[in-house]
Amino acid sequence: MTSNRQREETQSRLTWLTKILRLKDLKITAFSFQQRDTELHLWVKPFKNGCRCPVCERRCPIVREAQEARSWEDVAILGRKTLFWYAPKEIVCPTHGLVQEAIPWAAPYARITYRLEFRLCALCQIMTQKAAAAILKMAPSTLSNCLHRVITRVRTGHKIRGLVTLGADEIAYCKGRKYATIIYDLDRSHVVWVGWGLGRETIDRFFNESLSEHQRLKSKWASCDMSRAYTGAIQHHCPNATLVIDRFHVVKALNEALDAVRKDEWRGLDKRGRQAIKGLRWMLGMQARNRSKKQSRFLNALRTSNRRIHRAWVLKDEFERIWHFTYPGAARQFLKRWMTAALRSRLPSLKTFVTTVRNHFDNILSFIERPLTNAVGEGINRLLKIVKNRASGFRGLEPFADLIFLTIGDLDIPAHIPSDLRTL
What we know:
This protein has helices at about 1-20, 115-125, 130-135, 140-155, 200-210, 215-220, 230-235, 245-270, 270-275, 280-285, 295-300, 300-305, 305-320, 330-345, 350-360, 360-370, 375-390, 395-410; strands spanning about 25-35, 40-45, 60-65, 70-75, 80-85, 90-95, 95-100, 165-175, 180-185, 190-195, 220-225, 240-245.
């Protein structure tokens, strides 16, 4: 009677523990507290789904039972480290031969459970790895290795799909002028590729290794800055894509040319003349709709006091009209007339800008057909800088690329972890 009662009590405890931990597809056979009650060890076994082939998931006959039990770390419970113990069986599959049975609560060769992987990915998306390691009761180096294995496993065999509108940009990830090239899907606001370095060789590697010929021909739109490496590679590999030079970089180049005129005038003025145009830098860069009437009157007064700055400012304001055209033919005529007026202004910096516009003439006018910009890419870059700042920088590109794909990649990594044992 006593032994039966003890057996019933033990079984009720195991059932209660299974329900509390919300364990599915596995059964707890025993448990114990070790390491001065800081670790909870659970001896488990598959429930109604054991002895399955890890490849085809067919139930197969047992050949031999393992002599030693393996352990898998699970999510910490009430501050206690939790471990699963089980001795996997060797089975023979008619298709795949002698293999070890599939473990339903963990991936092959993994030492942590699916739900710890899910919790790890979810925490690393919103906090530093050091903070996530403290919550999960893991060493930061162990967490980093586990995270890399999870991301590598999920993204293995993943292919870029549906890339119609792409963007290219670069981002620094480490001191010492170390850069990475980022390729975006501008329609879906995702990062699809990360490559080490800058220049034509890096972006050529993306087109040759990550996209098929059919995908390259299917791309319809592209946006980037005025770098020859990006524009040349896109035009070479994606002949059917319409390249749109990013509006921000064009305006930035024009503002730099305008500021160069202001600097030249500043150097030639005396103290009294400099005092008259003090604070003019930010006023010149403002758009017409953002200026007050007082600021506009001040700029118009430069027509008599400083005609070179006034001439450059008028040309800059006129150039802004190009972004509001709806008919490409009218925009083309306007831009040609503007380039002629800029060349006649006898301002060296504006002549240099005209040369830049002439080199990218058609790609700037492509904005009229579709107002495509790299604003999505710049927004993604802001998120990537937040990720980089959390870790105070990265020594290599691999861990940085892992967090890029985890936070804003084209594949939702936590969603690809099996849902049966995903969360507590």
